[in-house]
Amino acid sequence: MKLTHKLCAAALVAAFGAAVALPHGAYAEGEETTTGNPLEFSGKGTINFSEDDGEDKPLDPTDPTKPGDIIKPPVNDAAGPLKVIAITDLNFGANKVTPATGNGWEYTAQAAEVEYKDGKKVVSPNFVQFKDTRANNEANKHTLIAKATTFINEQDKELKSAQLKFSNIKLVNGADQNQVNAAGVPAAQTVETDGTTPTTFVTQDAADKGFGQFILQFGDTADSTEGDSVKLWVPSEGNKLSTSSGYSSTITWTIANAR
């Protein structure tokens, strides 16, 4: 009997030692594991994004916080997250030929007329709308430049060395004005009408700015400068104005990656 008691005691000690030796969380094969904490349990949340390549609506010039159903000016129908969306034409009107003043002639562009799909029309500053909605973990750095061809009429006569002069320049982001890098936007700028010289209007080089849709406007209806902020300067030297037909120039705006 004593021997039997000793063998049973030894077996219990061996079993207990094996249980202590098992690491925490070790279970028999096929048995489910657990976190070991009945008070908490974790799940996951996931989200994915795709590139902004859909149809764009210009911002409403009268309220840049919302899109506008605009048919004039026309909208660029090309897709992409880095894009010039819409621009207003510059109309310098009909002018009488007069003697030059200060070695040349200066003409002022009319305020823009914006037309909505419902037929409503409003007066607006001339503007360029563009966007940078790239979202690939890199800074939204870009530049906006303009080039203008020579003003020429139907008889191939040119306004030589003419310049487009922009003033009261303002960059607006209706959704988040903090995305505007004010230091990268000059208050005034001049574009040569030679077809080749680029002029920079926006230099967005800040790492924490530049995302979204923007309006670069020339003048503001709030201070009545919408019709007095874009001028055409024509030097008298080398130029003789002609009434035979109107003159026209093509002004091209380009947004470019600056990363």
From TrEMBL:
The keyword Signal applies. Residues 30-75 are annotated as: Disordered. Keywords: Signal. Residues 43-257 form the WxL domain. Residues 1-21 form the signal peptide. This is WxL domain-containing protein. The lineage of its organism: Bacteria, Bacillati, Bacillota, Bacilli, Lactobacillales.
